[in-house]
Amino acid sequence: MKNSNLFKMNTFALLSSLLLLSACGGGGGAADTPVAATPIKAADPVVIKTGDLAAKPEFNFSTQLNLTLDVAIEQYSERAYLNVCREEPQTGKIDYSNCVYRGALVQGQLMHTLELSHQGGVLHADIWQFDGATEPERYQWQYQANASVQRFEIR
Fold first, then answer.
1. Which of 3, 21, 84, 134 has its CA 20 to 30 A from that of 92?
2. Bridge partners of 151?
3. Beta-bridge partners for 83
């Protein structure tokens, strides 16, 4: 009887092991075929037409900027010359090859409106006296986003 019970226990253990291996997959390898992923459908893009866009009434879509040059310097009773030029991006200095105004001051006075092509940036102004002996007076202006009127005052 001991042999019979031992045989039954060995048989039971062997069958249990085989069932356990087959239930777990028992290995596998490169021969397994991968399960194809279900593609996710992207949402339809939202189409906005230009006619659907809305802007505040005060926004005029203009890229032009009017800048008033207002120069009043009493010390220049003699004639002087004014250069108003853009800033050179690499150096931050005046770029004489990119000037928006060049002209003479009469008795240290000038009132002139410039129309600039865009709103950003910095302008530099140099005032030269015609005597050639003095260094120019230097001034700087920067666009003011909150100002309704752009004005470059030199005093």
1. 134
2. 68
3. 102, 126
Strand order through the sheet with 137-142: 94-105, 80-87, 122-129, 137-142
DSSP SS3 for 123: strand
Give CA–CA dist 90/125, Å, rounded.
Answer: 18
Residues facing residue 154 across a β-bridge: 71
pLDDT value for 147:
83
Rounded average pLDDT over 125-131? 88
Going by C-alpha positions, the residue among 74, 72, 73, 70 that lies closest to residue 84 is 70
Which positions ≥6 away from 151 have C-beta within 8 Å?
67, 68, 70
- Per the listing, tokens 């928006």 go with 100
Integer Cα distance of 40 and 119 in angstroms: 45
By the 8 A CB rule, do 150 and 143 touch? Answer: yes
Instruction: Judge whether 67 and 151 are in contact, CB under 8 Å.
Output: yes
Whole-structure pTM value: 0.59
What does the DSSP 8-state code read for residue 40?
P
Residues 29 and 139: their CA atoms lie apart, in Å, by: 78
pLDDT at 21: 58
